[in-house]
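A student in our group prepared the protein record below, which I am reviewing. What it holds is a sequence and that sequence's fold in token form. My question to you is simply how this chain folds and whether the tokens agree. Do not assume that whoever made the record got everything right. I have pasted the whole thing underneath without changing anything:
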Amino acid sequence: MEPSVASSESSNRAGDDSPLVRAFLDKRQNLILFLAARTRSMSLAEDLVQDLYLKVAAMEPGTEVRSPGPLLYRMAANLMVDQARSRQRTQRRENEWRSDTRPTLGGEDVVDEPAADQAIVSRERTRQLADAVAALPPQMGRAFRLNKLEGLTQARTAEAMGVSRKMVEQHIQAAMKALTRRLAP
């Protein structure tokens, strides 16, 4: 079979000779304007008219239609309603997913993570603090870590270090002063 014969057969199979397809081709521009006026979007109207063409072309070639014009407008309006309902379902599904996965406060999303610049600054300050604590004299650093970082009471810290509670108190005060001086802006 020659290529030109094959292409003409495939165009006949698409229903190009049906009265409804001919009516569609005649009214295509008007259908776009009809849908654009209702959707307020020319690109959406063109997409809907393309979908309409696919529906019309897929119809049985022998289907008899008495009034193709009104049928085309009804089909276009139905496609527009279907598209709007689909968009609403999608929006509802996304909102439900967002409400299930994101915390909200007063209807507004609450972001769990700090902003990127704040996270960087926080990491840098944490690194500076860790360096400053590591630079403390051994006994002072140990008292500070046990009490302030690990949450032990001063009495438990004194017991763990084998020193008096008063000594732990002095180590922690000295550590706080040293860290404040080192970390001051």
User: Anything to note?
Assistant: DSSP finds eight helices and two strands in the chain. The CA atoms of residues 19 and 64 lie 8 Å apart. The beta strands are 104-105, 108-109. Residues 3-105 form one domain.
